[in-house]
Amino acid sequence: MSRSTETTLRVRYAETDQMGVVYYSNYLVWMEIGRTDFCLHSGFRYRDMEAEDGVMIAVAEARCRYRRPARYDDRILIRTSLTSLKRRILTFSYDIRNADTGEQLATGATVHVAVGADGAQRSIPSRQFDLLSTRAEAPRE
Amino acid sequence: MSRSTETTLRVRYAETDQMGVVYYSNYLVWMEIGRTDFCLHSGFRYRDMEAEDGVMIAVAEARCRYRRPARYDDRILIRTSLTSLKRRILTFSYDIRNADTGEQLATGATVHVAVGADGAQRSIPSRQFDLLSTRAEAPRE
Amino acid sequence: MSRSTETTLRVRYAETDQMGVVYYSNYLVWMEIGRTDFCLHSGFRYRDMEAEDGVMIAVAEARCRYRRPARYDDRILIRTSLTSLKRRILTFSYDIRNADTGEQLATGATVHVAVGADGAQRSIPSRQFDLLSTRAEAPRE
Amino acid sequence: MSRSTETTLRVRYAETDQMGVVYYSNYLVWMEIGRTDFCLHSGFRYRDMEAEDGVMIAVAEARCRYRRPARYDDRILIRTSLTSLKRRILTFSYDIRNADTGEQLATGATVHVAVGADGAQRSIPSRQFDLLSTRAEAPRE
């Protein structure tokens, strides 16, 4: 069974720029949509973790390599993997493709730290940690 | 003395779309920048009212007429007026121009209600209400 | 047969603001997604009209009434209607709801003019005009 | 003489998210504002290079490390440096701080390739290349 999650979306007009392609910061928005789906497919809603456990997943680092442009109304496939999982730090990786042609558009990764409402580091709550660990690429530590 | 506030900004590449002009929702972002400056010029920072008084100015209505397109790197002038002020409801009006040519690009208005953190209607705190009323177009009610 | 088009989407984290609700300009982005779907359900892709016929649908006016806030991860239903159709001017209306509770969140409308790449007014191409007219609320003029 | 360019801006309400801080993709928008200013201070307007020379600077890679959150209405200082310049490839680096406290919020870099309107690789036009090379950190190649 694949441990990655697949999300599809359609490029919005608002996401294009005057070069006629998707503006580069929007890929980071798409990665976030991939993360939301990854949590959902792991068995919990990210928003519940924020609301009920008071734990948020802040971004510590993001990177993206842009290989081919995406265009308005293209159907996009985001494949999201959890490539590293520790109690306080997680890394997600992304493979972003044109969903119709399969062509790779971008790859990227984001590193996150769990924090409380006060911004201080926290551990991911056990329930969500266990759910995530069943889908993580690497063995949990 | 003019009671309106003037704000200038430069069009960001991110704000353009594939038509080569500023995407239409960004004018509402510019209006919000105008409101922030209007509060500042009235003698208070909007963020302090949110943080210290727990009163937020939610948007109840927005409208915009687009007359001429704005383009990347254009210098934009936003003239913001407070056209109606009541204890719980305010209306701002906006005149958006190319700052270099004076050409009118858009006009608009937003209606707001003061709410608490729980979303329930509140009155604007007295201090800020009095400051705003000195710059309101209409006599306060 | 209903002539309106239904679109569903999920609220993105990026669309929220520090008030904990969807930032108001994003509703205009959602309206645009509704329009894209409306064209598709009418039998053509808006992007083809831009690319092949060189005709773009510029926004002349937008308005939105915000009734209840939308929140991160809410499922949103946008019902898009074509309430007026002339050779060079169209008006779309929108009813935006929480897709799970049916609660109305916002209503709005946008007025558009057909323009060429040079920004000059044009007529909507006959093929797309005929397709749209079968779904317009009012008889075509 | 410092070869980097300094840009200041104020955080927009639209740029915050429900965590109460600036949403992470907006830092990439700020980097782009830094690049626009870097070109301007080097002696040319980026938009003229696009419009007159038909050469665009596409993004091939972006990365950002987020150290401390930025908040609504904070004044932000972006220091942009050109850390590598070749005929077809450039790398910019960014140091993003709170302009009032000097506190470092983020650092990042973007790699770009010059392309024509058809998306094919091009060389940066000589005039702009020479202007940029006077401000590049490394000797031009």
Keywords:
homotetramer; 141 residues; alpha+beta; Thiol Ester Dehydrase, Chain A; 5 strands
Quaternary status of these chains?
Answer: homotetramer
CATH homologous superfamily descriptor of chain A? Hotdog Thioesterase
Distance between the termini of chain A: 22 Å
Residue-averaged pLDDT of chain A, rounded?
95
Description:
Chain A is of the alpha+beta class and 141 residues long. Chain A has one domain: Hotdog Thioesterase (Thiol Ester Dehydrase, Chain A), CATH 3.10.129.10. Chain A is 23% helix and 35% strand. Chain A contains 3 helices and 5 strands, in the order βααββββα. In chain A, strands 1-3-4-5-2 form a 5-stranded antiparallel beta sheet. In chain A, a hairpin with a 5-residue loop joins strand 4 (89-98) and strand 5. In chain A, 42% of the residues are buried. The model of chain A has no long low-confidence stretch (mean pLDDT 95). Chains in contact: A-B, A-C, A-D, B-C, B-D, C-D. Chain A binds chain D through residues 19, 24-26, 28-29, 32, 50, 56, 58-66, 69, 119, and chain D through 18-19, 24-26, 28-29, 32, 56, 58-66, 69, 119. Strand 2 of chain B pairs antiparallel with strand 2 of chain C, so a sheet runs across the interface.
